[in-house]
Every structure is written in structure tokens, then in C-alpha cells.
Amino acid sequence: MTVDHISVVKDLYRKFALKDYECIRAIFSEKIEWNQMEGFPGGGRYVGADDIFRNVFNGFKDNWTSWKAEVEEWLDAGNEVVAIGYYYGVHKETGKEFKAAFAHRYVLDNGRIIRFDQYTDTHIIAEAMATE
Fold first, then answer.
1. Which residues, 6 or more positions from 61, have their beta carbon under 8 angstroms from its beta carbon?
2. How far is CA 100 from the centre of its chain?
3. Burial tier of 130 (Cβ tally within 10 Å: 0-12, 13-18, 19+)
4. Does the predicted TM-score (pTM) go above 0.90?
5. Using CA atoms, how far apart are residues 90 and 28, in angstroms rounded to an integer?
6. Which of 77, 89, 103, 118 is deepest in the core (most CB within 10 A)?
């Protein structure tokens, strides 16, 4: 049976929008590696769902009144999927809004995500967070 990797990654975005974290855990491999760009809130390398939830996802709810990622294009590369789209958000402290382009690279194995790499303009997001 062949796994439709784009469907798996699309499901991840749906579950994130619904804040269905238990289903997200089921999509992640136990040893998932999550690479957020330096300069991005929560930027760095994280391994395992607990590490990702603690250091990445919790920051979205703690620091942003709204945060969403909308994908405009999907690229199928065998066991890899690239999602291209935009982040939108409003920072809690500053009230500033932003829109920043992104590309997300996912590597999958047996229908589960084993690696995530993020590419985005961190400067735009930093400006929304700046208090001065």
C-alpha cells in the first residue's frame, strides 16, 4: 500500500489549526527532528514530540493572539513534501500583525513525519514582536 504523503502533511496543518495535539503526535515519528530557523520564535533543533510541543508549539499560544499557516502550493518529492505558503499572526504584547512567506520541507517514513525544516523571513516576524 502506498502512502499519500501530501495527504499526511495536509492533515498535520488541519490538526494544528484545530489544536488537536494528540492527533499531531500520531502523525509524528517518535524520533521526529524539527528544525526551526534561528531568529524565528522558538528557533532551533528539537527531537521528539515533547521537545517540539514544549519549545515550539507552546510559544505560539503564549505569545500570539492569532497564528496561522496557510499553504498555497504543495510539492510532492517522493518521501518528501514541500509546503509553500504564508504565516499570519498578531503578537500579544505589541498587537502588531504580520504576513511572512514560508517553505516547509517534510520527510516522511511509513506515513509519519520524521523531519521538518523551516524556511521563512524571520525579520518580518521579529518586527511584529518588536516593542520599539
1. none
2. 13
3. exposed
4. yes
5. 27
6. 89
Q: Which residues of 35-53 are buried (b: 16+ CB within 10 A; e: fewer)?
A: ebbeebbbeeebeebeebb
Q: Which whole number is the average pLDDT over 107-125?
A: 95
**Cβ within 8 Å of residue 62, ≥6 positions away:** 92
CA 111 from chain center: how many Å? 18
Residue that is written with C-alpha cell 521563512 in the block: 120
**Buried residues in 78-112 as b, exposed as e (16+ CB within 10 A):** eeebbbebebebebeeeeeebebebebbbbbeeee
User: Using CB atoms within 10 A of its CB, is residue 20 exposed (0-12), middle (13-18) or buried (19+)?
Assistant: middle
Cell 502588531 appears where? 96
The tens digit of pLDDT for each residue in 16-67 reads 989 899 999 999 999 999 999 998 888 899 999 999 999 998 888 888 999 9
Domain boundaries, the chain: 5-129
Q: 5-129 sits in which CATH class?
A: alpha beta
Residue 82 grid cell: 514541500
